[in-house]
Amino acid sequence: MKITGARVIVTCPGRNFVTLRIETDQGLYGLGDATLNGRELAVASYLTDHALPCLIGRDASRIEDIWQYFHKGAYWRRGPVTMSAISAIDTALWDIKAKAAGMPLYQLLGGSSRDGVLVYGHANGRDIPETVDEVGRYIEMGYKAIRAQSGIPGLDSTYGVAKDKLYYEPADADLPTENLWSTEKYLTFLPTLFEALREKYGPEPHLLHDVHHRLKPIEAARLGKALEPYSLFWMEDAVPAENQESFRLIRQHTTTPLAVGEVFNSIHDCRQLISEQLIDYIRTTVVHAGGITHLRRIAALAELYNVRTGCHGATDLSPVCMGAALHFDLWVPNFGIQEYMRHTEETDAVFPHAYTFKDGYLHPGEATGHGVDIDEKLAAKYPYERAYLPVNRLLDGTMHDW
Predict the structure, then answer these.
(1) Residue 97's domain spans which residues?
(2) pTM of the entire predicted model
(3) Splitting the chain (402 residues) into consecutive groups of 10 residues, what average pLDDT does each group show?
(4) Which one is catalytic: 212, 288, 312, 370?
């Protein structure tokens, strides 16, 4: 089964997505997500100008060989742009292979390990009362796990607090907006949010929180210890993880479960974190970590050390990625949870999909392949719009992690 064509589709139904379509001489085609938030055109160019000319004529069934070709064959390997491009190729090839086999992708991977995929939604508000109400709204929608983020007194803006409560998109401007941050205010405030949530809803719902890489290790240790009475499902991205050893100090001081990995693009970014059991959940995802082929390697390593998966699933991942992720989630033995930020109606119309939500769980569906398609005529009505993620400064003007 030879690859006869491949092209990149860039569309913006509310936010930018980059989709790769690979075609074969047997009439089958596959789709892969190549979206890198705020750097979408860099991946589109990498694919169009560098990768796709090398893809035409290859045997679409040789997924592993093609993965190795684009990974080992790129002397300047790894990095988010390269790995997002490889991810798109890999995901599209798995889509083709499952379609050729006449089965949903999870069956090709080895069959389901569970009946559904536990997901968590994003509840947020300008203050504690509003956030408490939003958590209640997600519970009413059927969610069993909810990430809670709140505005912080004394700060004009805070990561995770959206104008539109259901559809959060942080890439919000033609040039980066600048936010102000105070670690001191945050550390004082946050435990009061989860105290209010547990007082209102009791121990039943799983509660999660995203620190978004903003703390130093000892600060994260303090926060994790302060949150222990509220039994969080996890504390996410507590510190920038370039120094994997940072998590050792956090681990020494708190039993709050730790999750990290949405910005990782290789097994080497998390090898120490996993092998030394410094985290509980690895959040690498299909679109940024080399596709299903490489994500399987990361999950296999994690399984050896009782680390579970918790794949990133924000709206900057297209439904193509979500569909592929759900097939992976349904199969992977050491699954933990899947992030699920709902896409807008415009996005869902551009990307018709087989996955469905019910009672706190998603299921990828029984369509062949990963079950997500693209309406190219509709996609063409939404041209690319430049949009950047914000940047962050401390109150004294120093640049800080966003």
Answers:
(1) 3-104
(2) 0.97
(3) 98 97 98 97 98 98 98 93 98 98 98 98 96 98 98 91 78 91 97 98 97 97 98 98 95 98 97 98 97 98 98 95 98 98 97 98 98 98 96 96 92
(4) 212
